[in-house]
Amino acid sequence: MTATTIHFVRHGKVYNPDHLLYERLPDFHLSDVGRRMAEATAEYIASSPQMNTVSAVYSSPLDRTRETAGAILDALNPVREERGEAPLELVTDERVIEAGNEFRGKRIGHGEGALWKNGNWRLVRNLWKPSWGESYAHIAERVGAFAREKIRQHAGEQIIVVSHESPIWSFRHLLETGHAEHWMFLRHTALASITSITFDSDTGRVMSITYVDPAAGIE
Questions:
Q1: Which has the least CB within 10 A, 11, 78, 157, 213?
Q2: C-alpha of 52 from chain center
Q3: How far apart are CA 1 and CA 202, in angstroms?
Q4: How many angstroms separate the CA atoms of 73 and 162, rounded?
Q5: What is the mean pLDDT of the chain?
Q6: Is residue 140 scored above 90 in pLDDT?
Q7: DSSP code of 98?
């Protein structure tokens, strides 16, 4: 039996002084804390005899995920060079992008608050679907399509995928429970955390799911 492990990494903290829901908007970058989070997780990966053997690094095309992936590559490639291996380069993929959200660009819970103006409260009538944007089922479907492709492409290997909280958790929840729908307040996907899912490369069956939070102490 051969196995493929996908290490899903959530990006670090974003610089967002205006408290906007940035969703897929451009020019939302890692904060100073976020960069330290990314570096802590990158060092964890580079120093792990198992994880530093990954064969590829993918990410969402958004700024915060590419920057987090860049920190990982900066830590990982010197280890590869010491082993005489070629450096890895980042590959972006739209299928692991942030969830679509109708509140993009608006303030949530600050000042006037987007949730309470102009009938926007109707968008939060269903926390399960959710009613304010892309459904959890669709999110898990696109991440699943990406995963199935990479399981075959990287049979017997490990890869890193830098993504966002909702895509990572929706896919994990689908694998663990059979449905992607969940309560958003009960997610277990901290900033710069790593959710590692190992699959049977031939059947796609989930063999194990593990979770670690290397940046938990970063402030």
A1: 78
A2: 18
A3: 8
A4: 11
A5: 89
A6: yes
A7: P
Buried b / exposed e over 38-60, threshold 16 CB at 10 Å, is bbbbbbbbbebeebbebebbbbb
Given a contact cutoff of 8 angstroms between Cβ atoms, the answer to whether 147 and 6 are in contact is yes
Predicted TM-score (pTM) of the model is 0.89
CB burial of 15-29 (b: ≥16 within 10 Å; e: otherwise) equals: eeeeebbbbbeeebb
**CA–CA dist 85, 47 (Å, integer):** 16
User: For residues 154 and 169, what is the distance between their CA atoms, to the nearest angstrom?
Assistant: 22
In this structure, what token pair is assigned to residue 116? 């309470």
Mean pLDDT of all residues in 46-59:
97
Q: Tell me the two tokens of residue 18.
A: 């205006």
- Compute, in degrees rounded to 10, the torsion defined by CA atoms 113, 115, 116, 119: 140
Q: What is the spatial distance between Cα 168 and Cα 68, in angstroms, rounded to a whole number?
A: 15
